[in-house]
Write a structure and sequence with these properties.
Largest sheet: 3 strands, antiparallel
Strand content: under 5%
Order of helices and strands: HHHHHHEEEEHHHEHHEEHHHHEHHEEEH
Number of strands: 11
Helix content: 55-70%
Length: 509
Amino acid sequence: MTAFAALLSNLVSNVPAVLVFKGFVAHLLDARHAWLTLAMSSTLAGNLTLLGSVANSIVAERERREVEISFWEYAKAGVPLTHRDAGSGSGCWDEMPFCYTGDLFPQVLRAGEWFLRSGIQNPDGGVARYYRLHPSGNHAVSTEITGYAASTFVFLEKVCGTVGHASACPGELSSPAPGRVSAPADTSVCATSDLQDVAGEFRAGKSLGAADTGVRATSKSQGRMLDRARSSARFLMGAWDGAAGAMPFEVSPPQFTYFFDCGIVVRGLLAVWRTTSDAECLDCARLVGDSMARDFRAAGGEFHPILALPGKCPVERDPLRWSRSPGCYQLKSAMAWWDLWEATGDICYRELYEGMREESLRTAPDFLPGHADPRKVVDRLHAYLYFLEALLPMPCAALGEGIERVAALARELAPEFERSDVYAQLLRIRLYADAVGVEKLDRAAAEWEAGRLIEFAVSADDPRMDGGFYFGRSGDRWEPFINPVSAAFALQALALWSGAVPADRHLLI
């Protein structure tokens, strides 16, 4: 495209050349990249020949009495100069960090507002597993989801503090979800949140630059997000059963403890500790991390997925349900040990992570597809992406290979069943893998995944729904759940894709 645009710009001038390309570019898979290339090449093409720019002709005419510049004399300098600049420019877009698209950033604000206003978080800081539409209401609170929420609020606090310096330029806030849902008569609308002020201006169609948005978000929302993160951490510290030395999955009643959930809790507590320097968060994180190593260990280097309380007896495994079997997905929780090593300097934690990493790399090739039911395969994609995320402390070739494997299966199964968390995790790990230099970003694939993901965003009159993300979709039928984990993964993926924040592993939700 660069060569053709440069040539046409010299024949008919750059503005007509761009108009000629307009219809073609709009239908390309990576249209944004093509527009950037076209803008660059049609502009630099003015240097190619004496006729390439009106400015060239004006200067040559005005200085004709002093010096005679022929078409070919100009071309001796113009051709190599344009070749060098256009050639360099055509590749520069692939190297530009954190500048993918700002069009989807407003949905990050909406999702952050959903966490604040939906009631998914209880006053005591605990967070419900999901909101169900029919019959409407929140499911029970779990420590795992509260751990995710703690990490999410810390991430949103970071977004509020840095978006003013990001490259994203939000535009008008759209309502991407299909249809609107009327609020029930007994809906209790929470007080207007800080993020709502910013998002409201997008709804009104006002254009806010990134700097203005960042200043508004920082001054109004940063403290609110941190307060919610602290509240989640207090709930988790209160849920820890010191007498039993266990972190229960649910506190009412505390029947089971999960290896995976414990790791998510540790990472949530550490996220709050890094931001607040609250030593109690670090102390509790160490207690939970130690219980993972002590209580869940099984024969052959495995770790039991579930223990029954209070006796900590292993629950019977189910090979057709990944959450009830040991597997490579557990490495996401073992990443908590790596984080504890970084926080404390205790090498034992790193050795625990490295041991599970080695076992996970050995078993991961057999994890997919793992089931005959397409819905179950999609569920296993979600779990396999946990494994890929957990390779980030020590990246390797398996990361890039796994991304391509998940992407192929996700597209193949999309007509039957899709999940927002899978698209969010896939987009997110692409950006992280690119940031650490393991797998070059496939922009066209990432753009497709971002487009599919935004379709799951909910636009509704009910504040318990508006800004959240539907869990899944079968054809044109939406699953009747709004899941805080899906919303958290989605807002982080879109924030990274929009360029609002860099891909910092410590902020990975």
